[in-house]
């Protein structure tokens, strides 16, 4: 098998592989009939004391009581990786077919992926929580970066370890982005990676998009009207309501904010007060209620405002937040997490949030004075901050700067 070209894999049909075998023959059995161990190898002798010539797959008595299927060559029991009827199969040391999905070592030392029917597999295969690519020509796991076509026709990027790649990938002098959920190349859209926004063209090649900072306020019932404190506001984020320990409430000003933003030509987004701590049931109930009431385009921001009610269990808090962000993404919106730096560091595992939802943080950190423009010397230094709430303008209204272009999502 090693360094040979494999033929197209066919199904293993047990019924067609059984050779003729008679139990309890009327003829007198030879003293050598059955399995005989010679030089560490088992050979099966017929009742006449001879071996069946050629390669055959048939049901024979087990070495122990019972019967099983064995592949033999001139009567000799075959083990390891063996060819039969145009495919390759893996047999255990006792001669039985290996019938569970596994990564196994052959008799010559190379490793192969085996399916639950014992067949050696090629193409894209799932194993141990990841996806790997096995070369159709050798059945060996890929050991170089390459762009490959799967057995079902989709194309994937494979790394040097044979694993399918996702996220930002360098390939032949260009950058590409592969969706972490589907592993497919992203095309014809804008994406933001590590604070840099790219446009993925029809061929998937990424080109940086020049971003200019944009400004906007966030609003609740305390601001019935939209303001334009910077003089350059282009977006608004309004509270639709929230949950306080399972008590769900609506924010009456949300609809009027949406209408005012549309009239002004501003990009309109949504946030939800999320005081559910580590209670995933309360978060599910809250989002099931609000996600059908969003008055902004699909793709727009829906932020979880997580600044009160956290439990003392950081990982449980994080699990709850990730559940909410996943539900927002599933509903077709851009998930964000809002809070202020000390609260996040005390109650949330940001590494997990950033790993699954990079550049999704909206962080508050107020500068001194009443300047309407951000002073970046006061920036709350954290990784993956996409939007900074830099002032509450003396308690009147919050001012925000979009650092990555995330407020253009949905527009």
Brief rundown of the structure:
With 411 residues, the protein is mainly beta. 14% of the residues lie in helices and 35% in strands. The chain has helices at 14-17, 254-264, 280-290, 314-330, 341-347, 350-356, and strands spanning 34-38, 41-45, 55-61, 67-73, 76-77, 80-84, 87-91, 102-105, 111-114, 123-127, 130-134, 146-149, 155-158, 167-171, 174-178, 189-193, 196-200, 206-208, 214-219, 233-244, 247-250, 267-275, 301-305, 334-340, 361-364, 385-391, 398-402.
Instruction: Extract low-pLDDT stretches.
Output: 2-28
How many strands, what sense, and barrel or not for the largest sheet?
Answer: 8 strands, mixed, barrel
Number of helices: 6
Give the amount of beta strand, in percent.
35-45%
How helix-rich are the residues, as a percent range? 10-25%
SS content category = mainly beta
Please report the distance between the alpha carbons of the first and last residues: 56 Å
DSSP summary, beta strand count: 27
Molecular shape? elongated
Q: What Rg is obtained from the alpha carbons, in whole angstroms?
A: 32 Å
Q: What does the average pLDDT come to? A: 89
Strand order of the largest sheet: 19-20-22-23-24-25-26-27
Q: What features would you describe in this structure?
A:
With 411 residues, the chain is mostly beta strands. The protein is built from six helices and 27 strands. An eight-stranded mixed β-barrel has the order 19-20-22-23-24-25-26-27, surrounded by four helices. A three-stranded antiparallel beta sheet has the order 3-4-5, with no helix packed on it. Strands 16-17-18 form a three-stranded antiparallel beta sheet, with no helix packed on it. A hairpin with a 2-residue loop joins strand 1 and strand 2. Helix 3 runs parallel beside helix 4. The two termini are 56 Å apart. The N terminus is likely disordered.
């Amino acid at each position: 098998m090693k360094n040979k070209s494999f033929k197209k894999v066919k199904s293993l049909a047990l019924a067609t592989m059984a050779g003729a075998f008679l139990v309890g023959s009327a003829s007198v059995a030879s003293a050598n009939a059955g399995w005989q161990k010679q030089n560490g190898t088992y050979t099966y002798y017929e009742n006449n004391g001879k071996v069946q010539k050629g390669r055959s797959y048939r049901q024979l008595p087990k070495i122990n009581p019972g019967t099983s299927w064995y592949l033999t060559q001139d009567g000799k029991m075959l083990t390891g990786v063996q060819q039969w009827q145009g495919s390759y199969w893996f047999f255990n040391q006792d001669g039985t077919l290996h019938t569970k999905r596994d990564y196994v070592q052959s008799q010559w030392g190379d490793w192969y992926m085996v399916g639950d029917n014992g067949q050696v597999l090629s193409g894209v295969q799932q194993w141990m929580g990841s996806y790997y690519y096995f070369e159709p020509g050798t059945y060996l796991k890929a050991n170089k970066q390459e762009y490959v076509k799967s057995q079902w026709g989709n194309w994937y990027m494979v790394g040097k370890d044979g694993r399918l790649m996702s996220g930002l990938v360098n390939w032949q002098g260009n950058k590409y982005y592969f969706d972490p959920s589907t592993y497919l190349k992203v095309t014809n859209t804008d994406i933001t990676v590590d604070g840099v926004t790219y446009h993925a063209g029809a061929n998937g090649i990424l080109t940086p998009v020049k971003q200019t900072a944009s400004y906007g306020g966030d609003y609740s019932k305390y601001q019935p009207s939209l303001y334009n404190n910077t003089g350059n506001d282009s977006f608004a984020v309004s509270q639709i309501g929230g949950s306080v320990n399972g008590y769900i409430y609506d924010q009456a000003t949300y609809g009027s904010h949406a209408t005012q933003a549309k009239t002004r030509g501003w990009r309109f987004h949504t946030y939800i007060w999320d005081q559910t701590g580590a209670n995933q049931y309360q978060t599910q109930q809250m989002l099931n209620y609000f996600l059908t009431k969003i008055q902004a385009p699909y793709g727009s921001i829906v932020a979880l405002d997580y600044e009160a009610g956290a439990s003392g269990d950081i990982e449980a808090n994080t699990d709850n937040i990730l559940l909410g962000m996943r539900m927002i993404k599933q509903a077709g919106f851009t998930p964000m997490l809002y809070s202020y730096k000390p609260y996040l560091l005390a109650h949330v595992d940001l590494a997990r949030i950033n790993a699954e939802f990079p550049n999704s943080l909206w962080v508050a950190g107020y500068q001194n004075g009443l300047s309407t423009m951000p002073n970046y010397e006061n920036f709350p230094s954290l990784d993956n901050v996409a939007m900074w709430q830099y002032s509450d303008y003396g308690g009147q209204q919050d001012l925000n700067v979009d650092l990555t272009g995330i407020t253009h999502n949905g527009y």
